[in-house]
Amino acid sequence: MRHPSHLLLLALILPAQGLFIRGYNATDHDRFTGFKANPVMNPGFIYDASKFTGVGYITAGGDGRQYTLVTPRHVVCTTHNKPDPGQQLRFVDANGTVITRTFATVTVISHPSTGTSDLTLCTLDAPLPSTVAVYPYLNLANDTAYIGQKITVHGFFAKGGRGSIAGFDNVDGGPYFDESRLFRFDYNTVSGGANDCHFVEGDSGSPSFAMVGGQPALVGVHTTADTVGSTISNYDTFVPHYVVQVDTQLQSSGYRMSPVNFTATTLGIPSASASPGTLRRSHPGEIAFSVANTGAELTGNLAVTVAFPVGQQPYSLSAPGWVVESGGSGIWNLRAATLAASASLAFTATWTALPALASINPGISADADTAPAITANPSFTLAPSYAEWSTGLAQPGQTADPDGDALENLLEYALGGDPQSGAMTLPGGHPLLPVMTHQSGTVSLSYPERSDAVIRGISYLVETSTSPATLAGAITLPAGASSTTAPFSPAVPGFVKRNLTWPADGPRRFARVKVELAE
Asked: What domain range is 427 assigned to?
């Protein structure tokens, strides 16, 4: 192609007005009123200003260059007109609020075959909220499929016109970039439609969009223009040509450029697994979660939010393969640039001591650019524990005896005692220690037992023998023995009365209750 001579001028000469539009009038063609000092979305803008909240403008001086949001934290523009880190960019969001961001880094995108292109990716100092639009790119089968595509053309000073893609070529950018793939749309100076437009100096970097399903899809950013006779040819760097290169830069941030045309997939949140299998209050524990692509197509811009209620938040959350950001106390935001079909990504919440609560109930939400959003609200029961019971004791060990009543803490825990009082009765006056009686030819042994002993991992072992020396391990009860439980009267919350009986027709026996804990 004939090398355009106006490349530098488009970038650097800043006129009072940008983007020449046939039949221009501010009511139809200006995206804002009061631009730039007090920008308000123009309700008469023929392309609907509310759809272009993600087209920002630079704040420096009289400069009205525009930049296009392709992730919540990244914009694209032209290389020959790229900003400097530290410059500020403003957006007017869906609520009409002006939001300012600062350029943090500026990365020139490489051309697939050689050197640099006229496309640059800029990282902002912080993400934009969801009230600012992020734009997908127009992905068609091949370059030929773009020919004839109607485009909405944005220019300097936030004006909007229209064009139609007429062809493609590559251009050597001289001192500004090595080579760039461009598409062209033409403006006839003699005749044409009322909203047709052409570039003027200062329009470099502003975007062109196709409308797909009534929503904008990015096609290009303005590079240069050239005039031959009555035809002004306008050239955009063709953004879809550079998606692979842009995605390479975005991947480490957990983003990709989203295609506007796609085959939808689905996400799933499989059942989580706990370790250990029984989570206990005041014990260490972890829960492994995952999000899966349950469909047959790759998806991207996977975003997951994990929120734990106050008092339930883990000590840490590890997520290999994710970009992790804390969203506040108990909230984590996870991102991944892509997730292949039938693949999943895991993340694990870890507690050094699980809370003294009945359960942990996180909320999980996930979405992606080619899948509908999903939510899950799993619940994980926390079993009681000795550690929870002994919290606050000066001597919390199982064999300790803080009150000096000759009952170790573990026995107090199992039988319902108070480890700091020395009392030998339960509420209602029931005896704390086992009681053995002999009446009417029957021996009875009774003692308090926790009603949730199995959940707590407590075992009560009754050992009987004809000699104290052989009690240890003698858990076979005498012939004819039976065992029952019944509520105490008056009731003792959390406890039942265990009663064992056997005939008193054999030799004299000794009996004791042994407590074991296996949490």
From this structure: 388-517
Same domain, 20 and 147: yes
Render pLDDT for 73-105 as a digit per residue (tens, 0 to 9).
999 999 998 999 999 999 999 999 999 999 999
Q: How far apart are CA 465 and CA 509, in angstroms?
A: 5
Report d(CA 69, CA 411) in Å as an integer.
Answer: 66
Q: Exposure string (b/e) for 275-284, b if CB count within 10 Å is 16 or more?
A: eeeebbbbbe
Verify that 63 and 196 share a domain, yes or no. Answer: yes
CA distance 1 to 183: 12
One-letter amino acid for residue 451 of the chain: S
Residue 206 phi/psi, 5° resolution?
A: -70, 160
Rounded mean pLDDT, 36-58: 96
Q: Are 417 and 393 in contact (CB under 8 A)?
A: no
pLDDT, tens only, 483-504 = 999 999 999 999 999 999 999 9
Contacts of 286 (CB under 8 A, 6+ apart): 274, 275, 314, 348, 349, 350, 351
**Interval 444-480: pLDDT, tens:** 999 999 999 999 999 999 999 999 999 999 999 999 9
Distances (CA, A) of 392 to 279, 353, 386, 403: 21, 14, 12, 14
The position carrying tokens 């223009």 is 225
Taking a C-beta distance cutoff of 8 angstroms, is the pair 434, 460 a contact?
A: no
Number of domains in the chain: 3
Question: What gap in Å lies between CA 50 and CA 152, rounded to an integer?
Answer: 14
> Are residues 137 and 59 located together in one domain of the fold?
yes
For residue 398, the cross-strand partners are none
Would you state the structure tokens that stand for residue 516, as one six-digit string?
Answer: 């074991």
pTM for the full predicted model: 0.88
Residue 169 CB neighbour total at 10 angstroms: 14
- One domain, residues 55 and 105: yes
Backbone angles phi, psi at 4, to 5 degrees: -65, 140
Let me know how many helices (H) and strands (E) the chain has, helices first: 6, 34
Q: How many CB atoms lie within 10 A of CB 449?
A: 19
Whether residue 294 sits in one domain with residue 375: yes
Structure tokens, 95: 């609520």
Tell me the β-bridge partners of 198: 20
DSSP 397-428: STT--TT-SS--HHHHHHHT--TTT---B-TT
The alpha carbon torsion through 290, 296, 300, 301 (nearest 10 deg) reads -50
pLDDT-based confidence at residue 64 (cuts at 50, 70, 90):
confident
Q: Which of 448, 459, 452, 456 lies closest to 492, judged by CA?
A: 448
**285's tokens:** 């524990």
Q: How far is CA 302 from CA 20, 266, 456, in A?
A: 40, 11, 40
Q: Which of 83, 49, 51, 43 is nearest to 66 (CA)?
A: 83
Tokens encoding 62: 């009289």
Which residue, among 464, 460, 477, has the nearest Cα to 509 in the 3D structure?
464
